[in-house]
Amino acid sequence: MPIKCNLCEAGAILKRPKTGDALCKNCFYFAFEEEVHKTITDANLFVRGETVAIGASGGKDSTVLAYVLKALNQRYDYGVNLVLLSVDEGITGYRDDSLETVKRNQQQYDLPLKIVSYEELYGWTMDAIVKQIGLKNNCTFCGVFRRQALDRGAILMKVDRIVTGHNADDIAETVIMNVLRGDIGRLQRCTAITTGTEGALPRSKPFKYTYEKEIVMYAYFKKLDYFSTECIYSPNAYRGFARAYIKDLEKIRPSAIIDIIHSGESLSVKKAVKLPTQGTCERCGYISSNPLCKACILLEGLNRGLPRLGIGKSHKERRKLNEMLAQKEEAGNEKTTPDNSRETTENASSEKSASGSSKQKCENCSCGQKCLAEKVEDLQLDRRKIDPALIDF
Amino acid sequence: MCSVQEGEDVSPARKEKIVEERTCMKCEKKAVLVTRVNDAFCKECFMVYVTHKFRAAIGKSKLIRDGESVLVGVSGGQASSCLLHLIQEGLSGRAHKKLRFKPGLVFIDEGATIGMSAEERLANCTQVLEIMEKTGFPCYLKALEQAMELEKEAFTNTADQTDTASVTSVENLTKLHRYDKAEEELLALMDSLKSVSAKEDLIKSLRQKILIDLALKKGYSKVMLGDCSTRLAVQLLTDIAQGRGAHVAMDTAFADNRCNDITIVRPIRDFSSKEVAMFNILNNVPSVFIPRITTKAADSVSIEHLTERFVTGLQAEYPSTTSNIMRTGEKLHTEKKSSSENQCAICQAPLDTDVPPSSALSAVRFSETVSRCSSVTLSIFSTDTACCGGGTCQSEGQKESECCGQGDGSCQSKESKLTRDEVESALCYACRLLIKDLGDVSKLPKHILDDISQRQRRTKMKSEIEDFLLDPSNTPD
Ligand SMILES: [Zn+2]
Ligand SMILES: [Zn+2]
Ligand SMILES: [Zn+2]
Ligand SMILES: [Zn+2]
Ligand SMILES: [Zn+2]
N or C: which end of chain B has fewer CB within 10 A? Predict the structure, then answer.
């Protein structure tokens, strides 16, 4: 017996992954669009008269986002000018194909399109970067460069705001990643619907509460044209674990994705915990919590033949770079070897803990000296600090 | 789009290859164990390290006073057995600085939740009780179904009532198992919960209620639990996955002060399960294996079970997993609300449901309304999304039932059933998920329903006198 739509007399054609309700095609479109509209209005994402750039990759999320925003802008008269903004990473067989999709979208949706390329912005295509650094950390480069590329493209197009197609699944995954990595700063920021309000262009996620599966359903039934191949330089395995975990959770309890976002939104960080303050990059003026932004460091590394520079959290590398920049010498042949980098870091930290607290007496037991347990804790703490720096060695 | 964002792709260090023969990092003897990251210990140094870690955790917190009565939860499992052994050692004259609190032990039998026979339950209780009695501390035995019969609040001055099965000898064990009616109620409640995740979550809250209740009745001011870091890391991630982000800090901290009179403490929260297991082997600490609701089940049976497999799997590859997760927890805190009306009626944690319009909770509510209530469909251009109250709308048939007629708010009428909405209003986000799985809310334990009814009456009273209150936010305690 055919199931009837929960909302009207028509026959249902799908069960909403988000709520489990059976709906017909039109009622699903309605619910999907209304939810995005509510997300936009509740968070005051749009201001009449502003120009809003949609970060368009040709993939399903940004394709559906462009379609829905155009429809909602007409239906609810937001009064914003929508434009498409694409980044050409320079990945043969992946990006050139997906950019074709974006160009078709531009015609279908009748929206202006701007494409900025890594090559014109940085002088490097991803293909060239991979050729130099291999497949291990390419996603670091891509992530950092894309973020800036979107901003720079947006400034060229004189837009007021960027919206991206990040969906609820992406955000839940990022929450889990940041918990697993103990990164409290990012954990706190990653559920914000809009980021970068100080100085940088505001960047928002209208699909924050939209399930990936429903985006696919929407595109499928609307027959939207999108490009669905994974990046050929696929992301690292660790993120894959978090992704698989979330997919498994969703099977047990479909609301898990939203539940994780609720968790992220209601986390409260101790006041004593210091979060990095944001400044601007000395070289390019981009927002950065260090004197040089990540993109400039990565670029410097590439150009000087030290591609590991800036990957991980090695402060030693950063110091080295600063020295290098100060001396303004050619350092093309200078190389760090894994062994001595590790040694120096460990020596430095053990010296610090030894000189810092060796005279203190143990307060918790009667051992009367700097006690073993604390020493071990210190050591482990130091190890934890250096761990990320050692990843790539 | 590739969802990798700046700086988010750095993954923790993978496991290093462990060298066959290791020597102790403290002395030069042969190592027996490599702890969390890569520190090897010989037996003697390991014992010193573990004992010291335990004492330091208690000492540092400055929470447990000399002579204070502390109720220790014993599950029979590895971690709580390890805790029990450490307490015994610490209190003995041998210790160079004695611990000075007065422990009492309690075991809660949860056999009813997995359909164990009375004989099996008795056998388990006997085994655990044997271990507990050897310590010479006061011992209590409780069954989870007793949570169905608890009062909303325990009064310290109601001395040993008949319904507190304080059993101190094996002969009296049978006394425990006369809670037939309570057992039936618990089973009915468990049956009407569709998912194992919800069952596990509720069992946890009921267990906590029994511990707190017993502590209050018997004059204990702290409850001590043997949660190790591996366990708490799983708890933390499970919390995140179940929408308990706001409660992460309480659920995993050294001290959990969600209940006003009793603080829950976790003195071995820095111990890994590996350290616990090694400690128990080296000291011949006995433990009892008691199956739980997810024992031998598939990974996907519940959120907690899945998370446990996920964390232990990751830990094997990336040894810093547990400590990274715990590090996240260290930096978080749970804001405690002053009034008990702001506590969840089930888990007692502060309510996290007072959220702005742009939030996951209001997005969920909207999704449900927009795909269930046809009147919203008609009012497409209206921002008003109030529900129609008919058709396929979910709130159908949940009309408030009539009170017994005593308008003074003291109505105790059994007929005045709480509606689902009323129950939900007194619950936190995660416990609302639990209730969604529950067919009939009136199957909840009496103390929870009583608590919610009382809140309802008070809310009603307050709305009646609201106009005459000078400061409406001023609530009496
Ligand atoms: Zn319909
Ligand atoms: Zn820069
Ligand atoms: Zn000491
Ligand atoms: Zn040793
Ligand atoms: Zn709760």
Answer: C
The pTM of this model reads 0.83
Most confident of A104-108, A352-356, B400-404: A104-108
Q: Distance (Å, rounded) from C-alpha B139 to C-alpha B166? A: 8
Q: Is B367 on the interface with A (CB under 8 A)?
A: yes
Question: Which has the higher per-residue pLDDT, A322 or B399?
Answer: A322
ipTM of the predicted assembly exceeds 0.90: no
CA distance A77 to chain B (A): 12
Please indicate if any CB of chain A lies within 8 Å of the CB of B62.
no
Cβ A191 vs Cβ A151: under 8 Å: no
Residue A368 has pLDDT above 50, yes or no: no
Residue B9 confidence class, pLDDT cut points 50, 70, 90: low
Rounded-to-integer distance, Cα A61 and Cα A71, Å: 15
B321 lies within 8 A of chain A by CB: yes
Helices A168-181 and A212-222, packing angle to 10 deg: 160
Q: Determine which helix (DSSP H) or strand (DSSP E) holds A53, and give its type and residue range.
A: strand A51-55
Full domain range(s) for residue A96: 14-266
Interface of A with B in 131-170 (CB under 8 A): 137, 139-140, 142-144, 146-147, 164-166, 170
Q: Which residues of A touch B239 (CB under 8 A)?
A: 263
Share of chain A above pLDDT 70, in %: 74
- Residue B421's alpha-carbon distances to B395, B403, B426, in angstroms, are 8, 16, 9
Q: Please report residues of B whose CB lies closer than 8 A to that of A6.
A: 371-372, 374, 392
Domain boundary among A266, A289, A321: A266
Q: Of the given ranges (A203-217, B214-228, B350-364, B380-394), which has the lowest mean pLDDT?
A: B380-394
B199 near A CB under 8 A: no
Select B43-339's CATH number: 3.40.50.620, 3.30.1360.120, 3.30.2310.20, 2.50.20.10: 3.40.50.620
Alpha-carbon distance A368 to A361, whole Å? Answer: 6
Asked whether residue A357 falls in the same domain as residue A240, the answer is no
User: How far does B143 lie from chain A, in Å, by closest CA?
Assistant: 29
Chain A contact for B89, CB < 8 A? Answer: no
